[in-house]
Write a structure and sequence with these properties.
The protein has 388 residues and is an alpha+beta fold. The protein contains 11 helices and 7 strands. A 7-stranded mixed β-sheet has the order 5-6-2-1-3-4-7.
Amino acid sequence: MSNEVLAAVRGLLPGIAERARGVDESGRIPVETIRELTAAGVFRMLQPARYGGAEGDPVTFYETIRAISGVCGSTGWVAAVFGVHSWHLGLFADEVHGEVWGTGPDTLVASSYAPIGRLTPVDGGYEVSGRWSFSSGCAFASWALLGALVVGAEGRPVDFMTVLVPRDDYEIRQVWDSMGLRGTASDDIVVERAFVPAHRALRNSEQTQLRTPGREVNTGPLYRIPFGTVFTSTVGASVIGMAAGCYDLYLARMRDRTRVSLGGGRFVDDPFAQVAVARASSEIDAAILQTDRNVREVYEYAARDEEIPMELRLRVRRDQVRGTERAMQAIDLLFKTAGGNSLHRGNVIERAWRDAHAGSVHVANDVEYALSMYGRGVFGLKVEDNLV
């Protein structure tokens, strides 16, 4: 099914590209696009097969996300997060799967994972309150995955959890007004003292240690992969896709360009331009090859039901953030060498540049932090992080 999804998405790309400027200007992805991606099966690529998902190869999912992001950064970003949430739900208790997908496999789930919320233990579960930012595409979702801290009797945090909250229990505040990824409509979610049953709460430590309740019913290798691998690679894939799409657009636009300054002549005859495209394409290729190689290797360990070495988990994060960094180096080089033409608002190169820069500041793309973790690990120091 995964290959069929990718083939279907390629047929949708011209329409998504045509709507991209309107997405950027309006700050919203059209319902039509969400329906098309839903029908193509994008959001079910990593979803458990028990509930209508493909339960497929994560590398094919990342390839699909890169393709969408290459023609519209906002659409690719939202497709990425909706798609990875379908995987994340597979780690929750079985009751959750029935609640979300019992009436159909195409229910969409938004998120805001930062531990902003406050959880208070009550009979049968927790009471949650808080205001979360950066919930991409939340207007299309029926549920939200929200990060929160359990507060003990002394008012101190004692646990870090992700809770699943239905749409009736939260309000969306339309506050998104960004320089890039404008169409993601990553608005705020507000919850006031909502009850969360215990089965809708998942400890982040359980995710890191691969001891989630969902593994009891979703026994395939896809759900034996660390959250820190699947989620961060998803975020990285979108940014890499934006750079790859910008590269293709750059070539298409600059091949026939004639300089009006610097002595004139055809742009393609400029050796500096030739070197620029060589460098940019190499950075993008390296980003894709390393990240895909690592995820395949992790998946192979999971398929053999073997413990995934910490060194490999750290290498995933090392190359994921370096992949994002390489993508940014490539897109900066393309933007700079495109000259004054790249400055006009609405220009495809300018939009891709803004979107990629916006995506690069996600916490999963914090280069120095992830590289420091890798260094600690190879030096034999202890590494504790929820995104490994």
